């Protein structure tokens, strides 16, 4: 039967033929080019990923591997190459006691060299990037209040050791009125002995400012072209500075963040945080890491480089045994119109040995791994901006105190006021993420244990969020009642006017289109009540940040724990988590909240005063036999069962 198999002739369409011809001629051209490459290439201008960064024939110099060290440390010394330190016995006990004061493992930190090495975990493509020689100068502003000695100075050394001196104008150590002995004269002496006083400058505040105003004080003292803010427990990684300066040079109204790697608060080990996360937010105005939005992935993919000769020459120079093809665009043989092929095709072959186009599936990131990623928000501590523009766009709200909220304020503001916020995958800086703070929350007014995050966030909501502030106040109803005590907002509102900023809806639509708005464009929302038991669906005191069973509880009126929406897509959801039941649910199966994924296990149908029915399994939410605090379950749908009836009350507004 094999012999009788039909001979299969591929259908050769005109456009494929055309494609082939173009491809072949392109291949010839580049084989020729490859042959010319023994001659040195002068004035080579940029690598593919640096498109838009470099114009004309400016010459690049490679600094990616720049590193100096003033002391010699054995590779096996504690913490070298970013390793964590494991303590035992007495040391472990002491570190646990000190953890309460420092909020991280100070014993481990003290054992590690202030100039330890850390692994260069950038995407290897980052090392191929070239930057202009004439980059703007940087002022690195490190603010601190009662920071531990070793973590503070390791931050300083990491910046000095991994920044080309010609671009590092200065490091400003801004002491926000620390009262630790060692941060007094001892620190001044250490700085004087180790550093050029024009490069490492200590500036002290007379009164404690709180981190937000402290940053502005630091910025005011700075003279460099670009401000780069860091927390006082960071480690800058290899090549961190150049991509920041280059991107700001070419995009002066962009605020940029390095990728923030993790330094363990327990072991002080350095590890990559990957490069797929960007910043989002909860409606309670807490920061949240989010994965890149689909719209941003699409934008970056379609950011196809126009045909240019230089990237190909540079690439072949670096990879002499590679053969390269440009993207083959189509010129219509009848109309002669030119159309882009979109850059998503690569070549393959059929077993009949014909060439075929194939869409690129292997690595969806391809060379995008080095391209800046737009982010709706930033975490807050590590970012850079042109110095003049930082002030033009409003620095920070001087009415904000101690800690919290300023990161979302600056993010919303920058986007709304015609700037942008981007993460730079090739710039990496580690940060010790601590679960508490080694300082008090006493406000400038002397009030102790202030809810500064709440008050700062309410200020931001009032100035920037228009009607959407309702979603914040829904979480913070006590603040809504005290909203006349937030302090003066006139200046910040005037700033918004002066800069003719877009409104918050524009921000939601254009910058974070995937953000779920619980009371807009949904079928129903509010408190879901079962009339038989009188109980409402409830999060049962658990946070919406974990997979959990939901249950029922006495109806509370306007309670965030009882707020659910039925989205257009049929999800019973909160902000990010959706009610989920397996396709094989049986009588008594639990309903779990899972991160929303849009698939069938999270689809429900509902009509007011009717059943909440899981479409895939055909089961219904049922309050039969449930008491306060019990988990909700699904049972076979029964039209006559009042325990399966629900109504949503649309109670969202405060
Ligand atoms: C995150 C940010 C932090 C800030 C905060 C929200 C990162 C990695 N960190 O919290 O920079 O945006 O969210 O407000 O994104 N400090 C002062 N004066 C004070 C209190 C703190 O100078 O009154 C310093 C402190 O020494 C540190 C910096 O401010 O260098 C940030 O404080 P943090 O590390 O406690 O904040 P973090 O990282 O939890
Ligand atoms: Mn920090």
TrEMBL record:
Q: Domain of life of the organism in this record? A: Eukaryota
**Localization per Swiss-Prot or TrEMBL:** Golgi apparatus membrane
What positions does the domain Ricin B lectin occupy? Answer: 522-649
Look up and give the membrane topology term. Answer: Single-pass type II membrane protein
- The keyword Glycosyltransferase is assigned to this record: yes
Task: Using the UniProt record, name the top-level EC class of this enzyme in a single word.
Answer: transferase
For this UniProt record, the keywords arranged alphabetically read as follows: Disulfide bond, Glycosyltransferase, Golgi apparatus, Lectin, Manganese, Membrane, Signal-anchor, Transferase, Transmembrane, Transmembrane helix
Q: What is its EC number?
A: 2.4.1.-
Q: In which pathway does it act?
A: Protein modification; protein glycosylation
Q: Which InterPro entries match?
A: Galactosyl_T_C, GalNAc-T, Glyco_trans_2-like, Nucleotide-diphossugar_trans, Ricin_B-like_lectins, Ricin_B_lectin
Q: Which cofactor does it need?
A: Mn(2+)
Q: Name one GO molecular function term.
A: carbohydrate binding
Gene Ontology CC, one term: Golgi membrane
Q: Does the keyword Hydrolase apply?
A: no
What GO terms describe the biological role, i.e. biological process, of this protein? protein O-linked glycosylation
Question: Which Gene3D superfamilies does the annotation name?
Answer: 2.80.10.50, Spore Coat Polysaccharide Biosynthesis Protein SpsA, Chain A
- CDD domains under this entry? beta-trefoil_Ricin_Pgant1-like, pp-GalNAc-T
Q: Note one Pfam family from the annotation.
A: Glyco_transf_7C
UniProt record similarity statement: Belongs to the glycosyltransferase 2 family. GalNAc-T subfamily.
- Which PANTHER family does the record cross-reference, listed alphabetically? N-ACETYLGALACTOSAMINYLTRANSFERASE, POLYPEPTIDE N-ACETYLGALACTOSAMINYLTRANSFERASE 1
Which protein is depicted?
A: Polypeptide N-acetylgalactosaminyltransferase
Q: Which organism is it from?
A: Hypsibius exemplaris (Freshwater tardigrade)
